[in-house]
Amino acid sequence: MGSYSLKKENHVVETPTPQRDHDADTTLYAMVLGSNVVFPAALNAAIELNVFEIIAKESSQESGGFMSPLEIASKLPTQKQHCHELPNRLERLLRLLASYSLLSVSTRTNEDGSTDRVYGVSPVGKYFVYDENGDGYLASFTSFLCHPALSGVWLNFKEAIIDPEIDLFKKVHGMSKFEYFGKDPETNHVFNKAMDDICTTHMKRILEVYTGINFDLPHVIENAPPIPGVEHIGGNMFEGVPQGDAMMLKAICHNWSDEKAIEILSNCYKALPAKGKVIVGDFILPEDPEPTNDYKVVSILDNIMFITPGGRERTEKQFESLGNRSGFSRFQVVCRAFSTMAVTITQ
């Protein structure tokens, strides 16, 4: 798989680079995709074992942020740190994480001349270290997607494709997603933490400059912390929304069918003055599929929304259609960040 050294009689070392075969690459990529169920399980295991946290926070400055499997194993939150097989078993996991660029790999030479393979948190891996990256923390979202409550849902995924009326979560658990969360505090905590961690960075910046109303369901408002300049109001957006000059809907529309999204936007329209606007912060699907990470992220999220009846991500044209059908006359994409767009829909 890698380069090899060949020593000649004149002591010159050549390092031939094997030629990659396009068909071989295609076959290998298909094999990776076909077995890709293993990677989320491995990533979730690393999160549960605090692997990223241990490397980021327990490694010394002298080591340059790298640790050996033995050093990492000694810090694991388990009673089996002293199992002689643990470092070797752990390294099998570390190698997989490194192959996905979540960890960096280096070699350390010890005082006795021996060498150790050592691992550090890569720029991608920092998104799985709490407070390490100011742009977001994704480990809790991974934990939610790998939660046992969702395992059965993914195994029945095809049902959501062929039956547009199905509530997939309800089919598996006998109740809707939010009913289940209401009865299972542990699952509800995992879900809320995942949503909170994804939104925290963006909302911190918004709340630094925002004054106005925070409108949500009453049981959510009951637990809302006091924020200077913000009035918390409980209610139901399908029944009506408080009046305002502008309204922000962040990751709201993608939870609902077109009909329900139009209900929400229509209630916003009624509560706005002339020339009032709705600011929608949501993921945007390109019109045509593309083999890019940007497209993969939003397409994965679009498929995750199958667990919510009617939920989906939308294209610009589909968002514009929602605005028009809700009474608004103007649609404008204001900015984009990664796969998320902010649009204004104006009366």
Automatic annotation (TrEMBL):
Keyword Glycoprotein: no
Catalytic residues of the enzyme: 254 (proton acceptor)
Keyword set, alphabetical order: Methyltransferase, S-adenosyl-L-methionine, Transferase
Residue span of region Disordered: 1-21
Pfam families in the cross-refs: Dimerisation (PF08100), Methyltransf_2 (PF00891)
Molecular-function GO term, any one: O-methyltransferase activity
Chain intervals with Basic and acidic residues compositional bias: 1-12
Domain annotation O-methyltransferase C-terminal: ranges: 154-210, 211-329
InterPro entries reported in the protein's UniProt record: COMT-like, COMT_C, COMT_dimerisation, SAM-dependent_MTases_sf, WH-like_DNA-bd_sf, WH_DNA-bd_sf
SUPFAM superfamilies referenced in this protein's UniProt entry, alphabetically: S-adenosyl-L-methionine-dependent methyltransferases, Winged helix' DNA-binding domain
Taxonomic superkingdom: Eukaryota
Biological processes, Gene Ontology terms: methylation
Annotated EC: 2.1.1.76
Segments passing through the bilayer: none
Domain (O-methyltransferase dimerisation): residue spans on this chain: 37-129
PANTHER family: O-METHYLTRANSFERASE (PTHR11746)
Protein's UniProt name: Isoliquiritigenin 2'-O-methyltransferase
Lineage, opening ranks: Eukaryota, Viridiplantae, Streptophyta, Embryophyta, Tracheophyta
